[in-house]
Design goal:
The protein contains ten helices and no strands. The chain is mostly helical and 176 residues long. Among the domains are: 89 residues, no CATH class; 31 residues, no CATH class.
Length: 176
């Protein structure tokens, strides 16, 4: 079976237990094909373990293993980690995420790109912060309805005058 680089990378990044039997066999064959691939797999697996388990205290030993492996594919990655080691260590140990911030940033970039460079900061600010009056009114009405429902005492619904459960039963039985 011929694999592309992306397919092989995908096999390296997934957990062993998440792989199908055929994928496990393909991964085993890949790892046996070259000692460099086996070392690469081990290094990737250890790094993913640090990411998944927030085991940042293992970062220094992992960096030493990568440097002694002398695999060229990892050298630019390791250089980047060394340049911003504090941030990488924080990402591998702390429970906080900048995901919500990235989401807002992407939303702003989308709005900016959709304007095709037609305007400056003032129009961008209006598009990001402006809400038309209709949407503001809908928001107020929805909020008022929710407050009214929360404050309203609940009481059982009454049937209309003249209707009983017997009428309903008779009508149903006639239809059947």
């Amino acid at each position: 079976m011929t694999l592309s680089a992306a397919q092989a990378t995908w096999l390296f990044f997934r957990k062993q237990e998440d792989l199908k039997p055929q994928e496990q066999e393909t991964l085993r064959q890949l790892r046996q094909a070259s000692p460099h691939l086996e070392v690469t797999y081990q290094l990737v697996d250890e790094f993913l373990h640090m990411v998944r388990e927030r085991a940042g205290e293992q970062l220094d030993s992992w960096l030493k293993k990568v440097e002694t492996s002398q695999l060229q594919a990892f050298q630019t990655f390791v250089t980047g980690v060394h340049k911003d080691k504090d941030a990488v260590l924080a990402g591998l140990t702390l429970p906080w995420s900048n995901g919500p911030l990235e989401g807002h940033r992407n939303r702003l970039k989308f709005i900016k790109r959709s304007m095709y460079g037609r305007a400056e900061f003032d129009l961008l600010k209006l598009r990001v912060l402006h809400q038309d009056k209709k949407s503001q009114e809908r928001k107020k009405r929805r909020k008022n309805r929710q407050e009214q429902q929360a404050n309203r005492p609940t009481k059982p619904r009454m049937r209309k005058e003249g209707t009983t459960s017997q009428c309903t039963t008779i009508v149903i039985s006639k239809g059947a």
